[in-house]
Recover the amino acids of this structure.
């Protein structure tokens, strides 16, 4: 007879001589606070209004005014590592996420997911009785596992969340997102022409989750993790927000950065005496740009500002929702960024990111007739270095770098029930790291991180709680030693000799690590790293370098690894989505296939064969990949087999010379490289060639969106149809056979993938 694994009563012959026992689930207590972590993507230190900018962020500003504003908060230089540290309270390397989750290296510091020996805050709080929700960007699972085929153990529901609504990749189109609900892909509930934007959708969903939970179990607190896609590229916002910022930045980045810097001094988010770092190499003086360059660059910054403003309004909607439920006062509400402003728009900015990654550099003159597309559904923009450095004011360098521009970001904590009203609106200047947030939450909630979780031994939580600073603005920093590393760039911050020191080296891939140049700064007097003391304080620099190596060994940083391109090659095997023979067979109905598990047809010859059965009038998409800006669609229309090769709005459309017969048929499409940049496509029906066309430009990097079978999911590739245009007949099978890709094209694609992260 089977019995519960745990029973602490007694069982006699009858109920009268037995004692019942109930294994009640854990409960954190009726007064336990809710916890909300709002994470923005690629948002620099200066970009919130309360940190110096003129971008309208009244909702974050209000949270800062009613809570604690941190001015010395640090993260990792990249998104996935920061997320791993935030959710575990441990070093990103120790938990297996030294870089983005898109690749694995075969070493413990890069698993492509968070180690199971490091329970997430959702797993810990869930075991304490909290409801747990996540909406937004995940980017903490191996990307080849992020299709409907799974496995799902590293998806949000596998790592402690009761509910999930968002996307699993590092970025998505804000108007046509690749959405996942819980453990399955879904279609967005609206279109841009209906006013749809994924940030609004996320908050709608989260408020619904919280209402569902609180409506039935008002006694149960919740933990909500809200990682927005904003403000990662593509910078996209509703038209009214774009219109609001027109002309706002016509003075250019030099004037605007100086003004933001002066406002930072006025607000006290940087100390008096701080210098504004000089322009980074590659950032031109604004006055030296052509008039068309200025106009394009202004529009790119306007799109970013509109995107951030719109995101702030969604944060405000969440705050209002909690207030209306009576939950805001007892909610620990944290807003932070995952790294500094992005350098991935390059020196000139990009109108269409994928075009840039294909080596097609549009001059400002070529973009002038598409200025009004910037920031809308038909763009995939990122701003140039000049605006990124402006966003990182007063610092130098950017995301991916271990200088302050990459790792020093805003953070606000709001909790009316836990932060004395007399402390509201005060600033915290103590050094704090992203690893310190989760242990702070644990201390505030009275939770002890488990030594074992689900039978797996847990590594210790290594972050330092800063809870004392919430009660005392002058409390000393609890974290006095912190290492940084990304792609071989390294840094160490340490409190020594009555001040704060930083040793930092900016590494270039391929350069021997021992040849890196280390810099030395006294951060307590030189927050913006303007005065390098390496030559005058060689002993101190050497001491910190040696301490960095000690911390690296302690936290699992080694081996140092500056590879990028090699790591984005798909892992070919008989297991997983990418086979050794590069043959992919799909049988509908199928959910859309995200980009990384999809076959990658860019930059190579390849063939597709589909078997169909159709009656008169049956038409629709056989297979499609990409978006309205760049992609390939194969479909049947007006009894013809059609291929629309959409190369950044330069379309080559091939129609079969023969009709697609009624009944059973085999439809073939072939692509062949004819030179470094050109190609040819051909079609055949039942083995009979019936059309070919030259491709003036053959894309090597097509899109960040994946493929769909039997329909065109999301942003429609072809203008020849509307909506998803599902195939009306019977699509039995689609087989794709990829050819070999040249090394140069493989490296270009890998470089583009890395840049996108």
């Amino acid at each position: 007879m089977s019995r519960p694994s745990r029973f602490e009563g007694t069982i006699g012959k009858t109920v009268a001589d037995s004692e019942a026992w109930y294994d009640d689930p854990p409960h954190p207590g009726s007064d336990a606070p809710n916890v909300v972590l709002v994470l923005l993507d690629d948002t620099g230190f200066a970009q919130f209004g309360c940190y110096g900018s003129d971008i309208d962020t009244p909702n974050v500003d209000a949270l800062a005014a009613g809570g604690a504003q941190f001015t010395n908060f640090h993260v990792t230089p990249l998104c996935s590592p920061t997320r791993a540290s935030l959710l575990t309270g441990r070093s990103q390397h120790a938990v297996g996420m030294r870089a983005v989750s898109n690749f694995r290296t075969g070493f413990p510091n890069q698993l492509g997911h968070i180690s199971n020996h490091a329970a997430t805050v959702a797993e810990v709080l869930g075991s304490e009785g909290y409801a747990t929700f996540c909406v937004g960007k995940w980017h903490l699972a191996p990307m080849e596992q992020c299709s409907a085929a799974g496995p799902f153990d590293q998806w949000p529901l596998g790592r402690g969340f009761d509910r999930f609504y968002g996307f699993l990749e590092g970025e998505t189109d804000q108007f046509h997102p690749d959405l996942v609900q819980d453990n399955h892909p879904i279609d967005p509930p609206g279109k841009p022409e209906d006013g749809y934007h994924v940030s609004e959708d996320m908050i709608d969903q989260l408020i619904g989750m919280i209402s569902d939970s609180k409506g039935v179990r008002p006694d149960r607190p919740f933990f909500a993790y809200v990682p927005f896609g904003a403000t990662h590229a593509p910078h996209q916002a509703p038209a009214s927000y774009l219109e609001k910022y027109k002309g706002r930045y016509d003075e250019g980045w030099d004037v605007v950065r100086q003004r933001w810097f002066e406002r930072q001094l006025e607000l006290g988010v940087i100390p008096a005496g701080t210098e504004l770092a000089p322009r980074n190499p590659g950032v031109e003086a604004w006055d030296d740009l052509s008039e068309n360059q200025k106009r394009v660059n202004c529009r790119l910054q306007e799109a970013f500002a509109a995107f951030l403003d719109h995101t702030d309004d969604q944060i405000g909607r969440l705050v209002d929702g909690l207030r209306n439920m009576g939950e805001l006062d007892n909610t620990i509400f944290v807003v932070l960024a995952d790294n500094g402003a992005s350098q991935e728009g390059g020196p000139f900015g990009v109108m269409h990111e994928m075009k840039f990654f294909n080596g097609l550099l549009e001059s400002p003159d070529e973009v002038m007739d598409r200025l009004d597309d910037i920031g809308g559904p038909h763009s995939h923009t990122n701003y140039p270095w000049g605006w990124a450095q402006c966003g990182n004011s007063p610092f130098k360098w950017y995301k991916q770098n271990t200088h302050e521009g990459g790792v020093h970001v805003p953070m606000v904590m709001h909790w009316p029930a836990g932060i004395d009203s007399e402390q509201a609106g005060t600033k915290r200047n103590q050094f704090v790291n992203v690893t310190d947030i989760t242990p702070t939450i644990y201390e505030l909630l009275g939770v002890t991180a488990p030594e074992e979780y689900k039978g797996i031994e847990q590594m210790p939580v290594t972050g330092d709680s800063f809870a004392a600073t919430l009660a005392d603005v002058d409390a000393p920093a609890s974290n006095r030693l912190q290492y940084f590393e990304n792609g071989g760039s390294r840094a160490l911050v340490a409190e020594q000799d009555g001040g704060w020191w930083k040793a930092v080296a900016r590494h270039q891939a391929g350069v021997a690590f021992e040849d890196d140049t280390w810099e030395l700064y006294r951060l307590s007097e030189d927050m913006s790293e303007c005065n390098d003391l390496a030559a005058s304080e060689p002993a101190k620099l050497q001491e910190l370098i040696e301490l960095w190596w000690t911390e690296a060994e302690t936290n699992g940083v080694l081996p140092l690894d500056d590879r990028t391109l090699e790591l984005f090659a798909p892992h070919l095997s008989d297991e997983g989505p990418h086979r050794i023979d590069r043959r992919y067979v799909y049988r509908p109905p199928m959910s859309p296939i995200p980009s990384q598990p999809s076959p990658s047809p860019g930059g190579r010859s390849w063939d597709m064969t589909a078997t169909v059965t159709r009656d008169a009038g049956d038409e629709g998409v056989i297979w499609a990949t990409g978006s309205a800006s760049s992609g390939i669609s194969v479909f049947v229309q007006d009894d013809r087999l059609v291929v629309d090769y959409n190369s950044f709005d330069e379309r080559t459309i091939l129609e079969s010379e023969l009709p697609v017969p009624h009944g059973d048929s085999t439809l073939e499409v072939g692509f062949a490289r004819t030179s470094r940049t050109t190609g040819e496509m051909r079609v055949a029906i039942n083995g009979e060639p019936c059309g070919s066309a030259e491709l003036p430009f053959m894309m090597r990097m097509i899109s960040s969106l994946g493929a769909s079978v039997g329909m065109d999911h999301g942003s429609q590739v072809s203008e020849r149809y509307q909506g998803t245009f599902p195939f009306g007949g019977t699509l039995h099978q689609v087989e794709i056979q990829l050819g070999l890709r040249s090394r140069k094209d493989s490296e270009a694609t890998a470089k583009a993938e890395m840049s996108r992260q």
The longest strand covers residues 730-741. The chain has a mean pLDDT of 94.
